[in-house]
Amino acid sequence: MATASTENGGDLLDRLRAAGVVRLGIAGEIPFGYIDKDGELTGEAPELARVIFKRLGVDKVQPVPTEFGSLIPGLNSQQFDVVAAGMYVNPDRCEQVIFADPDYQMLDSFIVRKGNPKGLHSYQDVVAKKAKFATGTGYAEIEYAVGAGYKQSDILIVPDQVAGLNAVEAGRVDVFAGTALTTREVVKKSSKAEATKPFAPLVKGKPHVDGGAFAFRPTETRLRDAFNTELHKMKKSGELFRVLKPFGFTEDEMTDLTAKELCGG
Length: 265
Prior knowledge:
It comes from Streptomyces spiralis. It is a single chain. The chain is of the alpha/beta class. It contains 12 helices and 15 strands. The chain has helices spanning 2-7, 12-19, 44-55, 71-76, 91-94, 123-128, 141-147, 161-169, 180-186, 221-237, 239-244, 259-262, and strands spanning 21-26, 34-35, 41-42, 60-65, 82-88, 98-99, 104-106, 108-113, 133-136, 156-158, 175-179, 193-195, 202-203, 206-207, 210-216. The radius of gyration is 19 Å and the shape is elongated. 40% of the residues are buried.
């Protein structure tokens, strides 16, 4: 019977409506999807999921926390129904899952010592000035640095942006690369470090803007399309920005990018 249900775009939406609950794969990453100190599910993606799934007739969201690297395998092995983790859309991932259109776009930014003594504003600067460079586990920024000519084995990999800030403050590295949003949030309380102006990394010589989106199993096109319909209404009315703003997103992170563009289609 599997073929019958997949031919018309899957029946997951009907099943979720009947169950009244959708299981969200999250990776415990602030501000995208995480459990807060009171044990409650929050983050930009879960809060957006609550609104959209309610409009699709599914009243409850249930978190399924996992490692970031296990989100796609977990989705495809049906451990949860949708990835709600602010996942960047890229061609490799597009071969394994289908994405809604991005709910945000993101530039990169560096954490550097106050005053940016080495004048680091791009990955090319990091290479030219032989700066000691750090970024997070599994971050897209690793590829951007390597693409600019930085030796992968010389990159200090740290768990997250807090560890990155600590490494810069302690002088173990000159620069930590992350998203514009996470870097500007984490330096707010620092007296020794600051975040640089956001910039688009170069990929194959062209400025590249990332976009994060919800991911679905490849057979579930009906659910993805229904989700997109509601998402686009929220973009148009400005409601999307109101949902994302409490998590540190600005107008600059609102986007008209499509999944198709970011998948390379």
